[in-house]
Backbone:
């Protein structure tokens, strides 16, 4: 039996995986404990839910079961693995974030030691797999390729009728801060000839006062974005500068699959990624976007794309949107992981 522990999370990707497990008929072994409205009450409720769920694992898991664990799972990751093995079950770990990169609170050695308790790992891509193996991970690893995205797809015309705007339009959506996306504050003067639409929160007051090529729209509901966005490309970029993705967040793109890419593709937008990012080979091979070294290259690159070429990118993005909405990539990786532990 396939099992999982559903924990209410602000992380969209985790919620979508929980939903995919539910849709495949997996058994949710979590214990429902709800907190009050205050932040402290919610934290206490989440902790208690996890604690009681660990007790439930000891009662409910059976020999031959498989427990999917979404990593990181604060405080109780190793506990889940140990309980599962004690009960004769196997574990499959789907990595969302690596603490070595994301928060810097774990050394690579500690992270690998923690992950060594599972039976199979689903990593984001070959670059993350290589990083894990290069730091001593001996656990079998499966590549996810890209995160799925469960949301209503956009209505409208078929891809073959799409063409770029007269001025190519790029969209960036997400949190905006100096810490994570400092490049936002320098990009406008580098992109004459194209237009950038920014959706999100956290922009510094008056930062957009003198922008000529960029428009800040504020926050928008994700489903509304997918259904209504009028743009040509989605931008997947993090870090300090327009010239490559630098800094802690930018460097993380060398191993990480940002859920943002799935978000754009679910909206049937081809994507623009950093050429040195881990996602670049997949995006190029699937024909759903382009890779650049610097955002200053965008005016030249985008204006040289022919209508036929753009229509092909858009059609490929539309086809991938359907796969993302059905859980294609997670189910494929999970089935492969099951094969590695003797379940087909």
Residues:
């Amino acid at each position: 039996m396939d099992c999982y522990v559903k924990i209410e999370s602000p992380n969209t990707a985790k919620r979508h995986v929980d939903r995919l497990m539910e849709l495949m008929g997996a058994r949710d072994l979590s214990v429902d404990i709800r907190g009050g409205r205050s932040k402290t009450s919610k934290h206490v409720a989440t902790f208690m839910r996890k604690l009681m769920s660990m007790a439930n694992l000891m009662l409910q898991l059976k020999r031959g079961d498989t427990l999917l664990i979404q990593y990181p799972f604060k405080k109780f990751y190793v506990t889940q693995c140990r309980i599962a093995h004690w009960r004769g079950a196997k574990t499959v770990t789907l990595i969302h974030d690596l603490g070595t990169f994301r928060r810097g609170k774990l050394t690579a050695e500690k992270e690998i030691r923690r992950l060594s308790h599972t039976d199979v790992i689903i990593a984001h891509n070959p670059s993350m797999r290589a990083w894990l193996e290069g730091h001593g991970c001996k656990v079998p690893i499966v590549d996810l390729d890209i995160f799925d995205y469960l949301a209503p797809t956009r209505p409208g015309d078929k891809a073959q009728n799409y063409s770029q705007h007269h001025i190519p339009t790029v969209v960036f959506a997400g949190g905006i801060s100096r810490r994570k996306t400092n490049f936002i504050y320098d990009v406008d003067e580098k992109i004459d000839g194209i237009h950038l639409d920014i959706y999100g929160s956290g922009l510094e007051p008056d930062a957009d006062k003198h922008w000529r090529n960029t428009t800040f729209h504020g926050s928008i509901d994700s489903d509304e974005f997918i259904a209504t966005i009028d743009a040509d490309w989605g931008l997947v970029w993090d870090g300090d500068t327009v010239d490559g993705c630098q800094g802690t967040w930018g460097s993380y793109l060398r191993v990480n699959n940002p859920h943002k890419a799935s978000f754009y593709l679910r909206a049937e937008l081809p994507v623009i990624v950093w050429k040195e990012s881990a996602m670049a080979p997949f995006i190029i091979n699937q024909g759903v976007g382009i890779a650049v070294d610097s955002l200053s290259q965008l005016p030249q690159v985008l204006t040289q794309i022919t209508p036929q070429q753009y229509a092909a990118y858009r059609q490929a993005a539309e086809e991938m949107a359907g796969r993302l909405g059905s859980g294609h990539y997670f189910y494929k990786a999970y089935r492969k992981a099951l094969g590695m532990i003797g379940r087909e």
About this structure: The radius of gyration is 21 Å. Residues 149 and 263 are 6 Å apart (CA to CA). DSSP finds 14 helices and twelve strands in the chain.
